[in-house]
## 1
Amino acid sequence: MFRMTRVSVIGLGAMGASYAAKLATAPDTDVRVIAEGERADRLARAGVIVNDVHHDFTVVKPHEPVAPADLVVVAVKYPCFHEALAQLRHHVGEGTIILSLLNGITSEAEIAAAYPQAHPLLSITFGVDAVRRGNAVTYSSLGKMAFGEPTNSAPYTEAVRWVAALFDRAGLAYDIPADMVHQLWWKYLVNTGVNQVTALLEAQYAVVQAPDSPARALMLAAQREVVAVAQAKGIDLTEADIDSWLTVLAALGPAQYTSMAQDTLAHRPTETDIFSGLIRTMGAELGVPVPVNTCLHQILKAKELTW
């Protein structure tokens, strides 16, 4: 018997709204947005505008029972993650695939612990320049998502093939890396440097794109500490991974802001705890000095207190 593909999205910020809008274009796909309170009312009333196209998604409140989703996309920021995790209860069934768009390296394990009946895949996004202002989201590039099991080889697992087919129908670019753990740590290296430095300075990408920029030097110093911690944990990050990030960075719009810089500009809680905060913890456990990330964490936490 035919039925629509069910996709549930929680977190309709810049990233979540952009992916929800693209997934909604896939034939025979029903996109539902999980929200509560005033946000749910606002979304139901005004919808969301993505690149000048208005979208009215079905809004489901967390307490409302629904048929479990085939795919759940978690697109909240980490300060809201644990609340959002509880709100997925009615949307996760046996074999539900879950993609976490969160930064960091811990959310997939937490999802797996909360919903052992589900099938979370590792995933990262890169090359995205989406920005939200009010209920309007704009982007010039959605970049790519890399996703998969921890290790992947053709013809891939059923869950990976299913997501790839959905993304093909939605026109979303993706990669399926052989070593997804390495990719997750590569994105973590990127964000620990560029997100925190631009957030601290409340600055655009331009501040770290100039080769002689002091901000760029600070970003690289923070990233080299991530490499040191990763190597102590047996993760194969090297200076070549920083070089590949610099190639990506050069192609990003200099006037755009990282998601964390957008947070500090709006006086929202940042994700510094899952970047330099976690690096500090791992560094202490492994005996790896991380003075740059220690300083970044302390300053960003102090900055939050001034709000």
## 2
Amino acid sequence: MKTTALLILALGLGAQPAAHAADIQPLLADYRAAGAGGFSVQQGAKLWTREVAGDQGPRNCGSCHGQRLDQPGEHLRTGKPIEPMAPQVAADRYTDPAKVEKWFLRNCKWTWGRECTPQEKGDLLTYLNASPTTN
């Protein structure tokens, strides 16, 4: 009886992160309408770590946001703290489409020197919405 209760508890805790994933489907639908195709966690991870030359040396998304999406980051230039990117930690992170677009615009221009494409946004958002234990 005790083992069964522990197993049920363990299974319930293991499923918990997925239950807290953000509803990114409206944003992904917008990116598909703008010409993007299927989105991939793996492609988003590649984009997250893609290095580009910057004024302070090579940088990528994780340079400021960190490689652990469930942990806070820090802006390279300003030193300002950045809240964790994982929606499992910051539940309202991707609930406001205008905010998501604002930050994609700023961060893509600063990191990559250009705006992100709808495909890149969808792949990155899919990656960010994945469980932090897989990132």
## 3
Amino acid sequence: MVFDQSPIDPLEDLRTELPPSVILNTCGNDRAAGLAGARNTGIARAAGTLIAFCDDDDEWTPHKLTAQVALWRERPDAAVIACGISIVTLEGTVDRRPPMLTTREDLLRSRVGELHPSSFLFRRTDLLALPGGVDESIPFGYGEDYDFLLRVTERGPIASVPHELVIVHWDRDSYFAGRWERMAEGLSYLVAKHPDLLHDDRNAGRMCGQVAFAYAAAGEQGAARPGRVAPSPTGPSSRGRGSRC
């Protein structure tokens, strides 16, 4: 367990007893504060063959890893194994299952929202071979999972177990709730880093619309206008650099 340097939610309603076979080690995030640095800290300290993410307000069902490893034996070409999720909201529970197979080309057309980080299972060797690991330069870490999937699927597709094996809690406040400018900067960074996200007209409309909406909601109507240049991943934006929304 890695403490990501964010304010702690006691999560008293999610506490459970760990089975005797589970050994819990805790450490602080010694890299950039937030999700990206915390994930990289955990990857660096892990010693097992496989690595899986689980955010602190999500839960795994008892047979999640068993089902995923079994699928990997059937799909050894996969770079990631995912699964379905059950989203708990204040209004009830919604089940979502990702496609059985998702490629990088699919992700360039859509984020595929059914793919949730707490469902991901990786080979440790694949993560260590990924340049830079999880990108810690993404503003406020927003969209780090999308960027990560776009890069890791260059090594192979995502195969998914067709069952809901992760419980995702949306019945509490999100870290990004109302932080519109942070969302806009994170999404703009992704568009600049992966300009092929704009090659598909529908996905370009989706992402640029999200950026514009977020800036407008943050009160920056000027930044929400068409033609904005997304910030470059290697430095401040300037005319002619980055990708336009």
## 4
Amino acid sequence: MIAILHHPMIPRSQPLAQEVKEWIEAHGENTWLGSIWDETAVRDHLAGTSLLIALGGDGSILRAARVAAARHIPVFSINLGKLGFLSESSPDNWRERLAKVLAGDFRRERRLMLHAQVYRGGEIVEELTALNEVVVGRGGQARVVRFQLYVDGNHVTSYIADALIAATPTGSTAYSLAAGGPIMPPELPNYAIVPVAPHLSLDRAIVLYEKAETTIEVDFDHEASITADGQDALALESGDIVNITKAPFEAVFVRVDDPSYFYRRLMARGSGLRGGS
């Protein structure tokens, strides 16, 4: 069974999803349709699903990958957004590429995910999972937060900054990159801690092995929050502790390109940022 998830706010997404459904069924596979925004309904229908096809931009692909990861279901994506850094195909070439997938001519690209637990008074009050990044930072007021960073129980450093980003290799080309973090290849078994606008603090990213356990203590006198992949913000209280570890599962993407596609896209993106063609 193949799931096809459309983006409800992109007008061409649903008609294209129907077209993909008809094409796949003409090739002898069963399918079902859903909205990538209705994650609860999607999870309820995942039993027996062997492939998830996401139509949308990188945000849609992040949603799809998080939903599919716990069931170890691979994701194939059709880019309908602007950048498409995570996507595998476009509206112009999806038939050719999906035909290879149905024929078994593809590879599985596994990507690290992070799991965050928020402790308050010794109790877990929230748990989040991220494919891109976990961000702990200030709220709407332009005032810094004080952070204490521990790795595997050892105090590493203190920060006075707008935020701390825990970024996976996938997220290393997103918010982390804008904050000056390192670019990491997709399947690298590491994640990075990146400060945002540090004040008189360590201003370099720290790259950690995937099995490292990171603990962040927050201290502030205004407001702060935590987000995973830019969604589901949770307001924090001063004294809260955020514990970040590798998630117990990985996101799996279906790829028909060779592994060097990452560097080609990176170079194309860099050219675009410099105003090149």
